[in-house]
What we know:
Layout: H1 6-23, H2 40-44, E1 48-51, H3 62-74, H4 78-88, E2 92-96, H5 109-114, H6 124-132, E3 138-144, H7 151-156, H8 164-179, E4 185-189, H9 196-206, E5 214-217, E6 245-246, E7 249-251, E8 261-263, E9 269-271, E10 278-279, E11 285-286, E12 289-290, E13 292-296, H10 314-326, E14 330-335, H11 346-359
Parallel strand pairs: 1-2, 1-14, 2-3, 3-4, 4-5, 13-14
Antiparallel strand pairs: 6-7, 7-10, 8-9, 11-12
Helix pairs in contact: 1-10, 4-11, 8-9, 10-11
Amino acid sequence: MRIPSCAVMTLWTVAVAAAVEAEGPAADVVRPDGSKDRAAWMARGTFGVMTHYLIEPKGNTPADKTADLNRTVDRFDLDHFIRQFQETRADWLIFTLGQCTGYLCSPNASLDAKAPGRTPRRNLAMEIARRLKPLGKRMILYIPSEQAADPAIQQALDYGSEGHADRYFEFLREYSVKFGTLHSGWWFDSCSPHPDEYWRRYLAAVRAGNPDAAVAFSGAEFCCGGPVNPVCKIADYHAGEIHLLEDGKIRRDFLPPGGEIIVTAERKLRKRGQEARYYLPDGPRIDGIQWHCLLPIDLTFNPAIPNQFCHYTDKELFEFVRRIKAVGGAITINVPIDVESGHVPEDTHSQLVRLSKAVFAE
Length: 362
């Protein structure tokens, strides 16, 4: 694949801007199969920022842990977080409702009735969404699929028994209705293949509050060594989870935690006896849906990959973003966050600010 020059990137940006102006904000954009393209705005925009805000409250009893949950969420510095986000010039934010800890950052009556104390009194995710909307920014909600939900959440929703999917969909539907048009999409982690009818029920639940919500289901396709095609063919955009970039390309071969991982003389990560494999997109769609990737910087998604290997030079990161945008793809960059304060580390934040100036002001 030829690396696009800055001039190509500039021409592409101008062309996209002209197309958006010609279409107008209410234009119906369609996918190759004629269905509504709910994720067209991702390709038109700059990039997204994601952060895993995950609370693991301390305490010896459930009441102690709920109290610590509330203390933690109450301390989140919303003004600082929104200011940092604005300074990156990102167009959307993917924010975790919760993952793996059994505690969430937004109340949910469906869950609270079955397992009180798992959500806080402060609706942090809603506060963020309300701050982003007037800024012309979009909020995407992140949560695992029902099969990967925390055991405490699964227990509350009686996972494994008849109708467990419907109960999870109702749990999600409540969030969708509550957020309404304050949310523009969803990103679901740890998904496996299902028949289209199952996906349609899933999509109906999470679009109950906003029929235009763009939805992605992650099967970790970019980083597990198998096909890169999305696990759900009727999703709106590819979840695109990446574990590692190398020389400006996506590493496709899986590096297993606890496996025989070595560091070569060139400072490259390898599994002993396994060849590195690479991937880059060559167009704006994959299986007819919006091409999108989720790239972690300064914080790994994979315990086999030390954090320092997820720190990229400006040159490598900026050129990778240019490559993605030049073919009509979209990218979200996952960054660390201090759970106690809600602050993104200054070094990471500063790189995103430099990215926006270098790539999107060309």
